[in-house]
Specification:
This protein has a single domain, classed as 3-Layer(aba) Sandwich (Rossmann fold), CATH 3.40.50.300. Helices cover 41% and strands 8% of the residues. The chain has 9 helices and 5 strands, in the order H-E-H-E-H-H-E-H-E-H-H-H-E-H. The protein has helices at residues 7-28, 50-59, 71-80, 85-90, 106-112, 126-137, 145-149, 158-175, 195-198, and strands spanning 40-42, 64-65, 96-97, 117-122, 183-187. A 5-stranded parallel sheet has the order 2-3-1-4-5, with helices on both faces. The two termini are 31 Å apart. Keywords: Membrane, Transmembrane, Transmembrane helix. This is P-loop containing nucleoside triphosphate hydrolase protein. The chain crosses the membrane at residues 12-30. It holds the Pfam family Sulfotransfer_4.
Length: 231
């Protein structure tokens, strides 16, 4: 008897291939910029203000690679399959990085770029992050979340994802315990994510804090960008 895969299962297989193909085309014709600033890596997990920080760094003039760039999907799938060469290669084109998979390659990036700074964005506690993630993951199943958070569905896996958040924060803090001049924490719920704090690690034009309001991005109200963007 013939076997047919469901549309959902086929989408898991086909969408990553399409994304990777587009990402490779973009990367093939890219040229490294002549000058870059000391790099900044945002190590916060999903729903910790990473996109807002990335938007802010972009306003400060940083060449930024975040989740809005389709190549990030390719990098996620590459990392999930044990590859890091593509991540290392693409860092020569940018000086600011946020969202997956960057929070999970901080050791490699710290060794590769001794002058780089690292920002751990957080929520005020695990439960606040978990509530936000439950809405975020509830938009649709995305298999790579299993590699990062131990689960890709809600409800029923709260304890697994809660532990992943806790372990990530502890591991990052432990690694940078003797590298505090390269490391900073920012809590989105405590008002720490602002220009004054960010400009302690970022280069602000003229050495002045921007007079504009700090970006606020990727809120729950904006989560209707479509199924394809999560593939």
């Amino acid at each position: 008897m013939a076997r047919y895969s469901s549309p959902t299962r086929r989408s898991w297989l086909i969408a990553p291939l399409i994304v990777c193909f587009i990402a490779l085309l973009i990367h093939r014709f890219a040229q490294p910029p002549e000058t870059l600033r000391p790099k900044i890596f945002v190590l916060g997990l999903s729903k910790t203000g990473t996109t807002s920080i990335g938007d802010a760094l972009e306003r400060l003039g940083y060449r930024r690679l975040g989740w809005r760039d389709i190549r990030s999907r390719h990098l996620v799938h590459t990392w999930a399959n044990g590859g890091c060469d593509s991540l290392i290669d693409i860092t020569q084109y940018y000086d600011a990085f946020e969202d997956l998979p960057w929070p999970f390659v901080y050791k490699e990036m710290a060794d590769l770029y001794p002058e780089a700074k690292f920002v751990l964005s957080l929520r005020k506690d695990e439960e606040t992050w978990l509530r936000s993630m439950s809405i975020h993951v509830g938009r649709g199943r995305w298999l790579p979340y299993t590699y990062f958070y131990g689960a890709d569905t809600f409800p029923g896996n709260e304890h697994i994802m809660r532990e992943s958040y806790r372990n990530h924060s502890q591991n990052v803090r432990s690694y940078f315990a003797d590298k505090k001049d390269r490391f900073m924490e920012m809590s989105i719920d405590d008002g720490d994510i602002n220009w004054d704090v960010l400009c302690q690690v970022a280069i602000c034009p003229g050495g002045k804090v921007p007079a504009t309001s700090f970006p606020t991005a990727n809120t729950a109200a904006s989560w209707n960008t479509g199924w394809f963007l999560n593939q």
